[in-house]
Amino acid sequence: MIDSVNRRTLRVLVVEDEYLIALEMEALLEELGCEVIGPAPSVKKALALLDLERPGFAILDVNLGNERSTPVAQALVEMNVPYVVATGYEAKHLPETVLRDAPRLRKPLTIHQLRRVLADPERG
Amino acid sequence: MDEPLTQEEAHEQRLFSDAIMRTMRQPLIVLNGDLRVVSANRAFYATFEVSEEETEGVPIYALGNNQWDIPELKRLLENILPNDNEVSDYKVEHAFEQIGRRIMLLNASRMERPDRDDLVLLAIEDITEREDLHRELVGQKELAEKIIDASREALLILDADLKVHAANETFYEFFQVEPSETEGQMVYDLGNGQWDIPALRVLLHNVLPNNNTFNDYEVDHEFKDIGRKTMILNARRVDHLQLILLAIEDQTEARRAAAALRESEEKFRVLVESTSNATWETDPEGRSQGSASWSNFTGQAPEDVRGEGWLEAIHPDDRNRTLREWQQCISRGDRFSMEYRLWSAEHGWRWSKCDASPIHDEDGRIVKWVGMNADISARKEAEEQRELLLGELNHRVKNIFAIIRSLAARSNGHRSSEDFQKAFLGRLDALTSAHSLALESDWRQVDLRRLVEQTMRPYLDGSSESVEVDGPALDLPARPALSLSLVLHELATNALKHGALSVPDGKVRVSWTISETGNIAHFTWRESGGPSASPPQRHGFGTKLVDRVFEYELGGECAVEYRSDGLHLDASFSLG
């Protein structure tokens, strides 16, 4: 369960390899009163950030350059951190259950989508 | 008048005539006036299988249980002979009980005797066999003529001197000539010399006299009236009749059809071979009989292809569905068409399109299946490429909208809508021109110099000397290039507002180098001659972008210094 936005600032890990998109997500999340961890462009960077702290929530892009964000999703599952997967066309047939079964957000993200998913992260 | 014979002379005469009668091979019978047998010769007894005892003294009609009661004989003896004395070649046909049907030629002579009744000498010639032979001959002749006429081959019957004795209907029809202009003509003169065929001359003059037949001699000849014909000639010399039978078989159509068939087969063979890697056949149950071209393509030994061995050359992931589909087609008798990966001895796994159809006999039963495999790897690759491009395009369109959205959102916070518009459109223009550069290379890479020059162009107007660009050829991946264009735009806008480009003598030098090892690039932005630079009061979109894009998208690092002689940016990132 996410800590209430009102009680404490929610820290959200953003994993997204395209900087301009990441900046936009960061801006939107800040508008919603969250703090962004990252953004991280790669699995390696994301895992390094997870070593430092346990986020309250995470938004994962599926394809990070030549890799998938699967190991990050696995780490989040282990850390019991709720997350959503932001998908484009490429996520139609995801082989990895940690990505396939996660709640999804259609790109491009809007502030309404983000507000809804933060209110009820299980629904996506 | 004859002198009367002496007793001695008469006796001698009698002995003589008896001897003649006995030795004659022809049955002879002597009858007295009331037509009783006086005597008969040995030939008579033998021919009619009767004995002397049951013959002599018996009326002729009563001979052999009245077998000789023949109406024709009665007419001869009772009506004709009394008037004529001599009758020759009187033909009588009669079915005898014992010896069967006989045809006889009777010669009768009446001998008048003074003071005594007349004697009748009856010579019987049995011509049954001769007549039968004759009839058979007539029949044979008729048969031969009918065969000749009914023959679908043109037949010419030539005399020994090569004049046409006869020809059959087929001949007249085929060569479009009339019997009247044919019979009696020299063969070479037929149809105004159209039959003067050198090959035929050789055959008739040289071959036939020595061999008395020639067989299947092919002649090609251009006839004036009926055009070019290919004929098969067969000839027989009928020596007993001094005739030559010449049979002419028209092969023109058959040859043309055979040539057309060969051509058509060749055409299909070339077509199939040029579009396929392998062709093959199976029995009606779909079992392969081996295929040289299949073996050639897959490297399978011919015996390994047989039955269902060919499946081994199909990719393990495609094997089951291929077999299932194939078996369904076999059981339904349907056409088979599917795509699967096939092992190529030369190129490894290749996508192959397999098409097969059943061949039916006249009763509609499947006698075999024929099939071919065509390499469709190029098409498959193109399809995959298209799929990939489509997805990539979709992705890019979504991203570009997200980015534009982000630019619009981040360009906010300006005092007036005019400023907002200027800031937003400036960023959008920078992005657009970088996008065009990326598209030029199919979204693969962007030349850094062109990117810098194009992004800086709006700031070069009238003062091209104020911006200096210098660096070796360097290709950036497309996506970081887009971000870099925005960085350049932010730096240029800032320079124009607060930095080196805000004064007439200010200069900006944009340069880059590549390390000796070739894998690290150093990028610098140096402002000089302008006002002293100071760090921004707040970390807006532009500042964040400049600070982190090298790290984020190129895995590099970047440092910005705000110095008294202007802003300095130093970045480095790895290549490739």
From TrEMBL, chain A:
InterPro entries: Bact_response_regulator (IPR050595), CheY-like_superfamily (IPR011006), Sig_transdc_resp-reg_receiver (IPR001789). One of its GO terms (biological process) is phosphorelay signal transduction system. It holds the Pfam family Response_reg. The modification 4-aspartylphosphate is found at residue 61. Keywords: Phosphoprotein. Residues 11-122 form the Response regulatory domain. It comes from the Bacteria. PROSITE patterns: RESPONSE_REGULATORY (PS50110). The keyword Manganese does not apply. PANTHER family: PROTEIN-GLUTAMATE METHYLESTERASE_PROTEIN-GLUTAMINE GLUTAMINASE 1 (PTHR44591:SF24), STRESS RESPONSE REGULATOR PROTEIN 1 (PTHR44591). This is Response regulator receiver domain-containing protein. It comes from Tranquillimonas alkanivorans.
Automatic annotation (TrEMBL), chain B:
Residues 279-299 are annotated as: Disordered. It is an enzyme of class 2 (transferase). PROSITE patterns: PAC, PAS. Its EC number is 2.7.13.3. InterPro entries: HATPase_C_sf, PAC, PAS, PAS-assoc_C, PAS-like_dom_sf, PAS_4, PAS_fold_3, Sig_transdc_His_kinase_HWE. The keyword RNA-binding does not apply. It catalyses: ATP + protein L-histidine = ADP + protein N-phospho-L-histidine. GO terms for molecular function: ATP binding; photoreceptor activity; protein histidine kinase activity. Keywords: ATP-binding, Chromophore, Flavoprotein, FMN, Kinase, Nucleotide-binding, Phosphoprotein, Photoreceptor protein, Receptor, Repeat, Sensory transduction, Transferase, Virulence. Residues 288-299 have a biased composition (Polar residues). The keyword Secreted does not apply. Residues 264-333 form the PAS domain. Residues 336-388 form the PAC domain. It comes from the Bacteria. This is histidine kinase. The lineage of its organism: Bacteria, Pseudomonadati, Pseudomonadota, Alphaproteobacteria, Rhodobacterales.
